[in-house]
C-alpha cells in the first residue's frame, strides 16, 4: 500500500488554522479510501521562526523538503515584517529551487456559492489558470543604487527564457487538451512589451503546432479582464506570465464567489522534486485566531494534492464532500456571508467523507 510523506507548513496568520483543518480532513480521506496512508511532518517555518532566527527557514530548507512527496502550505506574510522579506524568504525560496514552474489555479463556482456576475449561475465559469511560476516578472533580478539620493535608481528585470516559456506553454496546452473543451487562451502584452512578450507569443504559436486538437487564442491582459467579466463562458484553460496570472487569478477568485475558496498548486511536472499545494487567500491577520477562516480553499488544494499523488478516487471523493458542504449556506464562513466556524466546516466535510458511498 503506498504511503505518502507530506510536509505540512502552516506558516503565518490563518495558515496554521487552515492547514490543521486540511491535515484532519486528509487523514479521514486516507481512512475512508483504505488504499493508501499519509504521514505528516510539521514545519514551523515562517514569520515566528524569523523573529527567533532572523531567517524565514533554514538555509537548506528547500533541500530538506525534497524528502517529501508533497508540501501542504498555509500562508506567509506578517504585518510587522516587510512582505518582500517574508515572501522571498519562504514561499518563493521553495518554488524556485524545487522548480515548481507550473502554478495551477482552478476556478469554479462551487454549489451554494454566488458569483457576483449577474449571468453566472455556475457552469458558465469553469477555468484553470496556468501561471508561469519560475521566471518572468518574479525572476528576482534587479537592484537599487544610490539609495535615498535624488539619483536613486531601482530596477526589477523581467526575464523570460525560451526553455521557460516553452515548458509552461507545453504544460498549458497539455492541460487544455485533457479538459473536455480543449480550449486555451494565451494572455500577453506584446503590444507594449516588445521583447520578451513577443517571444512569448512566438513560442505559444510554435507549441500550438504540437497540439492540433487544441483550439487556442491570444488575449492582451487588459482586454482579458473585460472578457473574464463579460464573456466568462468563452474561457476554459488560460496561460499567463507570473505577474499577469497573479492579478487575473485574484479576479477569477472574486468572480467565483470568494478568495476563501480558491486553491492553487505549485507543480513540478517532471516530479524530480515535490510539488506544493496551498490556498490562495494568504495570512489574513484581521481574522487570525478567531476560528472563522474558511478552510475550503485548503480542502480543494488537498484534493489537487491527492490527484497529483496518484489518488484520483480519493481526490474526487474529497471534492464531492466539499461541494456537499458548500451547498449548505448554514456551513458558510463569514467571508461567504455566513456564520459558520472553521471547526464546523471541517467537521461537516469529515462527516460527508465518512458517509460517501462510492
Ligand atoms: C499569490 C500571492 C503571491 C504572489 C504573493 C503572496 C507573493 O499573491 O500566490 O498569488 O504574488 O505570488
Ligand atoms: Mg496573488
Automatic annotation (TrEMBL):
Please report which protein family the annotation says this sequence is part of.
Belongs to the isocitrate and isopropylmalate dehydrogenases family.
- Specify the protein name: D-malate dehydrogenase [decarboxylating]
**Which residue ranges traverse the bilayer?**
none
Q: What does it do? A: Has multiple catalytic activities. Apart from catalyzing the oxidation of (+)-tartrate to oxaloglycolate, also converts meso-tartrate to D-glycerate and catalyzes the oxidative decarboxylation of D-malate to pyruvate.
PROSITE patterns linked: IDH_IMDH (PS00470)
- Write the Enzyme Commission number(s) for this entry: 1.1.1.83, 1.1.1.93, 4.1.1.73
Q: What reaction gets catalysed by this protein? A: (2R,3R)-tartrate + H(+) = (R)-glycerate + CO2; (2R,3R)-tartrate + NAD(+) = 2-hydroxy-3-oxosuccinate + NADH + H(+); (2R,3S)-tartrate + NAD(+) = 2-hydroxy-3-oxosuccinate + NADH + H(+); (R)-malate + NAD(+) = pyruvate + CO2 + NADH
Task: Tell me the GO molecular function terms.
Answer: D-malate dehydrogenase (decarboxylating) (NAD+) activity; magnesium ion binding; NAD binding; tartrate decarboxylase activity; tartrate dehydrogenase activity
Upper lineage: Bacteria, Pseudomonadati, Pseudomonadota, Alphaproteobacteria, Acetobacterales
Q: Which cofactor does it need?
A: Mn(2+); K(+); Mg(2+)
Its pathway is:
Carbohydrate acid metabolism; tartrate degradation; D-glycerate from L-tartrate: step 1/1; Carbohydrate acid metabolism; tartrate degradation; 2-hydroxy-3-oxosuccinate from L-tartrate: step 1/1; Carbohydrate acid metabolism; tartrate degradation; 2-hydroxy-3-oxosuccinate from meso-tartrate: step 1/1
Domain Isopropylmalate dehydrogenase-like: residue ranges: 5-349
InterPro entries membership: ICDH/IPMDH (IPR050501), IsoCit/isopropylmalate_DH_CS (IPR019818), IsoPropMal-DH-like_dom (IPR024084), TTC_DH (IPR011829)
Question: Which organism does this sequence originate in?
Answer: Roseomonas acroporae
User: What keywords tag this UniProt record?
Assistant: Manganese, Metal-binding, NAD, Oxidoreductase
Amino acid at each position: 500500500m503506498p504511503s505518502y510523506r507530506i510536509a505540512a507548513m502552516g506558516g503565518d496568520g490563518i495558515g496554521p488554522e487552515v492547514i490543521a483543518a486540511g491535515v484532519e480532513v486528509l487523514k479521514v480521506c486516507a481512512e475512508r479510501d483504505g488504499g493508501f496512508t499519509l504521514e505528516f511532518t510539521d514545519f514551523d517555518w515562517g514569520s515566528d521562526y524569523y523573529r527567533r532566527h532572523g531567517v524565514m527557514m533554514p538555509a537548506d530548507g528547500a533541500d530538506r523538503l525534497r524528502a517529501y512527496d508533497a508540501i501542504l502550505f498555509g500562508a506567509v506574510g506578517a504585518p510587522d515584517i516587510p512582505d518582500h522579506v517574508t515572501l522571498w524568504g519562504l514561499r518563493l525560496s521553495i518554488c524556485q529551487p524545487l522548480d515548481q514552474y507550473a502554478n495551477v489555479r482552478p476556478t469554479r463556482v462551487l454549489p451554494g456559492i454566488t458569483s457576483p456576475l449577474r449571468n453566472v449561475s455556475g457552469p458558465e465559469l469553469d477555468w484553470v489558470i496556468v501561471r508561469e511560476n519560475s521566471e518572468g516578472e518574479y525572476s528576482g533580478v534587479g537592484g537599487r543604487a544610490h539609495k535615498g539620493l535624488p539619483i536613486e535608481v531601482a530596477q526589477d528585470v523581467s526575464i523570460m527564457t525560451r526553455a521557460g516559456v516553452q515548458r509552461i506553454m507545453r504544460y498549458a496546452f497539455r492541460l487544455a487538451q485533457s479538459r473536455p473543451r480543449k480550449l486555451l487562451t494565451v494572455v500577453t502584452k506584446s503590444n507594449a512589451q516588445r521583447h520578451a512578450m513577443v517571444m512569448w507569443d512566438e513560442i505559444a504559436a510554435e507549441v500550438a503546432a504540437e497540439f492540433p486538437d487544441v483550439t487556442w487564442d491570444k488575449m492582451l491582459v487588459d482586454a482579458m479582464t473585460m472578457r473574464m467579466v463579460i464573456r466568462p463562458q468563452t474561457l476554459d484553460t488560460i496561460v499567463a506570465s507570473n505577474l499577469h496570472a497573479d492579478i487575473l487569478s485574484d479576479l477569477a477568485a472574486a468572480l467565483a464567489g470568494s478568495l476563501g475558496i480558491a486553491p492553487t498548486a505549485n507543480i513540478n511536472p517532471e516530479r524530480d522534486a515535490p510539488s506544493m499545494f496551498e490556498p490562495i487567500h494568504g495570512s489574513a491577520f484581521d481574522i487570525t485566531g478567531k476560528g472563522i477562516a474558511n478552510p475550503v480553499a485548503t480542502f480543494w488544494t488537498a484534493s489537487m494534492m491527492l490527484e497529483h499523488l496518484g489518488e484520483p478516487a480519493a481526490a474526487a471523493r474529497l471534492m464531492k464532500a466539499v461541494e456537499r458542504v458548500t451547498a449548505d449556506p448554514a456551513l458558510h464562513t463569514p467571508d461567504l456571508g455566513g456564520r459558520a466556524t472553521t471547526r464546523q466546516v471541517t467537521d461537516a466535510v469529515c462527516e460527508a467523507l465518512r458517509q460517501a458511498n462510492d
